[in-house]
Design a protein that fits this description.
The chain is mainly α and 315 residues long. Helix content is 61%, strand content 0%.
Length: 315
C-alpha cells in the first residue's frame, strides 16, 4: 500500500513499462517476414544501374542489420540471420497500400532502401572485378567481402552462395547488354548496317566493363562454369536469348538483300563466335597481346555475312 505524507494527495504509482518482446518471438516474426519476402522475390532482381559509393561497406552492413532486422551482429544466430537476410534482400521492393496502389514510404524506409541498393551495388562491383581478374574458382566470398569492406556476415545478408553472387553479377550486365542489342535492332537501317552497329555496340560494352568481358570469356569455356545444373541452364538461356535477337537481325538482312542467305540461327551463332573471339584478343579486355584494329574486325564481319556477289543462293 502506498504511503502519503500529511497534507499531500496520494498519487497512483506510474504504470510499469510494457514488457519487451521476447527475443525468440522477435526472431520468429522477423524470420516470417523474410520468408514471405523470399517467396515474392522476382526471378531477376538485378537489373539495376551501376552505382558506387565511397562509404565503408562494413558500416552499411551493420546499419542494414540494425535498421532492417532490429538484431545484433549479422550471422550469429540462425533465425536472426535469416530474418536479416530477408529484410536486406527484399526490402527494396515497391510497397503497396491497402488498395493495391504504391504506398508512400517514410523517410526512414527510403534511407534504408538506399543503403541496401548501394550496398548491393558495392558487392556486385567487387565480385565482378575479382571474378574477372582471378576467375570464378580463384575467388572466395571472403575476398569479395574484404574488397568492398563488408564483414562476411554482412555479405551473407545479400547472397546465400558464391554461385548466387556470380549469377547476380552476370544478370546485371546481361540485362543492360540485351537492352542495347534490342535498341540496335529497333533502329532504322538495312540488315548489314544494323549488324555493323551491333558489333560496334558489343565491342564497346565489353571495353566499358572489362572485368565482365573477361568473366564472359572464362565462362564460355567449360572449366570456368560452375557445375550445378541450375547455373548451366540459366547461362544457356541467356546465350539463347542473345542468339535469338541476332537471328532476327539476319532475317531482316536477308529480306532486304544485304545479308547472305542461310539459316538465321546458324549465322547468328557464327557471328557470336566471331565477337567472342575478338573480345578474347582485345587488349582492353583480355591479357592477350594479339591486337586487331577495330576497322579490320568490322570489315571482316561485314564480308563474312555479305550476300554472294553474283546473287546466287549460298549452298
Amino acid at each position: 500500500m502506498a504511503t502519503t505524507s500529511p497534507g499531500r494527495t496520494s498519487r497512483p504509482a506510474p504504470a510499469a513499462p510494457a514488457e519487451a518482446r521476447p527475443a525468440a518471438t522477435h526472431a520468429a516474426a522477423a524470420g516470417a517476414r523474410g520468408a514471405q519476402a523470399r517467396t515474392a522475390r522476382p526471378a531477376d532482381a538485378t537489373a539495376t544501374a551501376t552505382a558506387s559509393d565511397g562509404a565503408t561497406g562494413t558500416a552499411r552492413g551493420e546499419a542494414v542489420v540494425a535498421d532492417g532486422a532490429g538484431t545484433g551482429a549479422a550471422g550469429t544466430d540462425g533465425g536472426t540471420g535469416k530474418s536479416a537476410t530477408g529484410t536486406a534482400r527484399h526490402g527494396t521492393g515497391t510497397a503497396k497500400d491497402d488498395a493495391g496502389g504504391p504506398a508512400v514510404l517514410s523517410p526512414r524506409e527510403l534511407r534504408r532502401q538506399e543503403r541496401l541498393r548501394v550496398g548491393r551495388e558495392q558487392i556486385l562491383d567487387a565480385a565482378e572485378e575479382l571474378f574477372g581478374r582471378q576467375g570464378y574458382r580463384g575467388t572466395s566470398l571472403q575476398q569479395v567481402a574484404k574488397r568492398c569492406e563488408f564483414s562476411i556476415g554482412a555479405l551473407y545478408l545479400f547472397i546465400d552462395s558464391k554461385e548466387e553472387l556470380l549469377q547476380a553479377v552476370l544478370n546485371r550486365r546481361t540485362v543492360e547488354l540485351m537492352e542495347l542489342m534490342a535498341s540496335c535492332l529497333a533502329a532504322e537501317g538495312t540488315g548489314a548496317e544494323l549488324l555493323a552497329r551491333l558489333a560496334r555496340t558489343q565491342v564497346d560494352f565489353h571495353r566499358r566493363y572489362p572485368e565482365f568481358g573477361r568473366l564472359s570469356i572464362q565462362l564460355m569455356s567449360a572449366p570456368g562454369v560452375p557445375g550445378t545444373p541450375g547455373f548451366r541452364e540459366g547461362f544457356a538461356r541467356g546465350y539463347d536469348a542473345a542468339i535469338e535477337l541476332e537471328a532476327e537481325l539476319f532475317v531482316r538482312g536477308q529480306r532486304d538483300g544485304t545479308l547472305r542467305p542461310g539459316d538465321p540461327g546458324c549465322l547468328a551463332r557464327l557471328y557470336s563466335a566471331m565477337v567472342t573471339a575478338y573480345h578474347a584478343m582485345d587488349p582492353e579486355v583480355s591479357a592477350d597481346s594479339a591486337a586487331l584494329p577495330d576497322d579490320i574486325f568490322l570489315s571482316t564481319v561485314a564480308a563474312a555475312f555479305a550476300p554472294p556477289p553474283d546473287g546466287s543462293p549460298a549452298r
